[in-house]
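Provenance and format

Records in this collection were gathered into a single text stream. Each protein contributes a sequence line and a token line. The two records reproduced below are adjacent in the stream.
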Amino acid sequence: MVMDLLIPIGIKDRKIVLYTGFISASRTHIEWLKDEIKANFGLDGVIRFNVRAYRLMYAKRSSIILLKKIYYREGLPCLERKRFKIEQALGIISKQADVLKLVYRLD
């Protein structure tokens, strides 16, 4: 079984778009992972079939929570390129949230 963590990041309407996904050829494994994430973190994901594999996807809010749980500490084994990408995205999202708080405070 091969499983991968997908983290597509983009910009739409000047807001960062973040999805976190897991891909596997095994539907049983993806369903188990979805159940475990729901039980441990209370997050709902969506399973989709794409060509030859199943994808378990989480949208922005759930992605932020899930990624902070996965990368909860420095020095954990991980792909540095993915960790870097995640840290960049979470930093941008955090700055956007701070700006929105400031704007709404001025209303």
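Adjacent record:
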Amino acid sequence: MLGGNEMRLRAAPRPNEECSLMDNRARSIAAAEAWLDERRRSVALLASVDADILAAAIACCGSAENAGLFLTAPARALGERTPVEVALEPNGKARVLELLAALAHGVYL
């Protein structure tokens, strides 16, 4: 059986473990900041979305808030790019409208 002092010594983190925890925290913070920057950029692009796309997204998603979330989130069917980004490309409006029509009809892409 271990005495009180021995338990405290064993419970103390090792220097390498502390560094590892700090590295993990730094990576997590960096990933969160990158995600937040991407969301801010997508939301800024949302202001330039065509009215037809916005109307279709609201109809498909059920609310303006859900439509905004959909339009600013990466979509597998669009090569992991956001519908807002794709909509700004040539023929992008048609691709996003096709995706929304498919989703509205229950087709999972």
